[in-house]
Every structure is written in C-alpha cells, then in structure tokens.
Amino acid sequence: MSWKRYKKIFSSLKTPFDDETKFILGLDIGNQTSVISYWNVNRKEPEWIDISGGYGKPSIPTVMQYVPEHKEWVYGEYAVLNQGFFEDITITYPVQRLGYGEWIDIDGKPMNLPLLLSRYLKELVEMCRNINPNGEIAGMVVATPTYFSDEAKEEFYRAFSLAGLEQQLICFLPHRECILHSLYHQEMLQEEEKILYIDYGMESLRSGIFHTYTQKEEMKGEVLSSLFDFSLGLQNFEEKLRRFFIELYCEETQEQPDQLTRETIQQIEILLYHNKAMLLQQYFQGKSMKLYFNFVHPAFQKTIEKGQLEKIIKPFQEQIEEFLKKALNKTMTEPLLPHQITKVVLSGGGFEMDWALQTIKDKFPHIPMIYDSFSEGQISHGACWAAASYLGLAAPLDIQLEDQHRLTVDLGIKIETKKGDQFIPFVEKKSFWWHDYETISFITQHEEEEELTLHWYQRNGKGEESYLGEVVLDNLPTRPRGATRIDISYWMDNPYKLSGIIKDRGFGEFFPATDYEKKFEVIL
Question: Which domains are present in the chain?
Fold first, then answer.
C-alpha cells in the first residue's frame, strides 16, 4: 500500500501528534535479535520498546520454538532459555534463510518459513500493547538488508501478510537508508559528507561509504564503497566462544566433544548466553572471570583469563582492521584515506563488545563517531524516523543514492566447440565487482602455428551479447593442439574495468611450464 494513503489518514485526525493510541513503528528483524521502535508523540522522536522492563536489553531474540509435548509455541528469550528441557523444534536465523522456499517439519506437518516467521512477527508487534492496551498500529517501516534478494523480499512480505500486518506495512527500507533518515532527522548532517557506515551483525560485517549532498528535503549521492565479509559475522565469533565453552566443560569432565548429549550442548549454550556480555567486558578491562557449570553433577567452576580469550579475539581484530583498509581502497573512484571520512556511523550488536568498538576508534581516532550503547537499535530508530516522515509527523526526505557495485551483465569469453561458439562466464551478473575471483584454467585447442586470441564479451539478462575486445597471446610457446594449459587470474579494478594475468602452465612432463606471462585489461 502507498504511504500516501497513511499520510491522508493521519492528516484527517484532529490532533494527530497527541493521539497516543496510534502507533507508528520501525522494525528491524535481525538474524539473531529483533528491535522494535515506536514514535513517541510527546517527545516527537522514536523510542525502543523494552519488554525487559529495564532489566535487560530492548532487543528480542529472533527465535521461534515449538514444544510438541504441550503443542505450543514460544518466542524470543523464552525460546532460547527453553532449549533442552523438551523435545523442542527451534528455528533460528530466519532472515538469512528467506528466499529459498524452505519448508520445516513441525510435529509431522510441513510448514514454510514465511508462515513460521509470521507467528513471530505477530507476537513482536503485539508487544506494543504493553505501552497502551488500546493502541492500534497505524503504520510501520521495516528495515531490510541493503542487498535483499527479490525472492527473500517476496517471502518476507508474505510473512507480514500472513501475520495480518499487510495493511499496516508502509514499506521495506534498506538498512543504509534507515541510518541516513536517522542522521538527517537528528540534524547530524552537513551539506556534504563522506560517511563510513559499519554494521556488525550476526551474518556478516558490512560497510558502506556514502558521498552525500543534502539540501532541504532531498539527499543525493553515490555509494563509493560497499563491502561485506561473512567470515567476520557474529555467528562465527560466537561459534568460537561456544567451542571454547565446550572445551572447558570437557577438560573438567574428561568427556569427548563429539560424545556430548544434545541436552548438555544446549545447557552449555545457555551458560554462554547468560555470561557472554560480562565475560567480554571483563576481558576488555583485563580481568579474569569465574564461570559456574552448575547444570552438571558435581558442579564445578572455571576461571577464564584474558589470555584465553585473546586467542579468540585477536584474529578477529586483525581481520576487521584488514576489512577497514579494503573498504577505503575498494572504491568507485580512488582509494580514500581515513582523514577523508567526515563521519563514522556504527550499528549492529557487534559494537556492543568493547573490543570491537575500540578497534574502530583506533582506526579513526579524530573522526566524529556516531554510535549508541545499544547499537543493535540504531536501524530500528531510523526505520521509525522514516515512518514518521512518510506520515507527515517528521520532515519529508527523499533519498537518491547511486549504487553501481553489483554488475548487471555477465563477463566472459567465447570459445569454439563442436556444438558452436560457447560463452564461458568469468564474472556473473549480480556479482559485486570487488569480489576475489578464483583462477580459471584452460587447455587450449588452437593449432600449433596459430596465434591464440581470447575474445571478451558481456551478456545481459536477455542473453544478448556485446563484444568488448580481444587479448592476443603473442609469443605463447608453440606446442601441438591440446598440449597447452593456461591459468587466467583476474579481478576488477572498478565496475568498468576487468584486469588480469595469463600464465603458461605447460602440459605434463613433455611440455613443462614456462615463465610466459600476459597482462590484460578489458574496458566495459
């Protein structure tokens, strides 16, 4: 539904800003946790809905669990802590699983992921009634990953529809635009900015550099850099901690890790869940911490020293530092230096770990840095600002960011086969140009006296091919047909230029490899 319809509804209210029964929401449904913000009509700004009553964090684990014994569903923290007590079916990381048509067996009945996720969404939105039992949802903006596939978006929309929230859904909004809404409405932007945005989430560490120009109610700009690294996702970090906890347990009990029961593993995971934040805080302060394994008989305790955690954390720190260098170097134009960044904005649960936050501060010591102690909630706030803006309760903002980091064509060569010319793709459409590509090997079929030429093409979504140019392998060692193997290493300097090196690898013992090397460039 168009947000203009919602704006019309609000404009018809006699006192729209004072009507506390009309909830405007910003939702961030994450892989590990979800956050919901509502528009505070008195303060005229978003606030998080904290179901912990101030005793925990406003985020809610994105976890659903079915308990066959009682034939009931539980959600959020209850689902996390309930593991291991029953023959439960627990669904985790639902967002990254969207778009694949997944079905899950629930007590003998197959259910698709959108239907399961709809139960969680309904429960999540119902929490607004803790603020006002008479309240109703007037409209919501839901944050999505910046590069959310069409298939994933369709399943996500179906989940909201099945939850009965289709009419309240204003739109999906990419994470980065949620952040820009938040900066704009809090008057944190200059007319021209180069903003480095880093999101440390469960699935990956992501960054974007936005060169923006803001005037009145309009923001235009270009995405200079856009990277992500799945190996640095929080789920990988937490898996390292999980294995560490299992090692501690097995060290004491003399059991083998692969022989632990499911119930024991779940109890260890609950112990990690309760102690992770304090453990990492003690690490950052250089202190040790005692862990109590009281779910086993006899119970025991273990003292965790800083050096033990250092072995886990240090490699992640080093990889994050390399990731930041790459973010500054892999741009659309030319490499950037840290001092050319005007603002650093942080979001995601990873930056609630002091060591991760300090790693970024050390890299950009003199650059204004925007973050919150509850960094998981940054995106939800931005989504709520956007919802209020769409409905006329906050200043309007039109965001236009040019993003050319994903290719719209296939790039490759054409070779002759018995069935005719064949297109061999090297870079596929929808790939990110900065990806690292594997070396491709070919056994050539050119005649002994024939000069080998590689003809490069691009192919669009309709299968139409356009000629880009040729690479002539002059002076390649002469050998019989089918007795030359070449390795093609390649990369993209930017979305418009493919570069590479072709090396001779010979062919077996009779035709050894030589030092032949040919560099090439192909302009799109």
Answer: 3-232+333-402 (3.30.420.40), 234-314 (3.90.640), 410-523 (2.60.34.10)
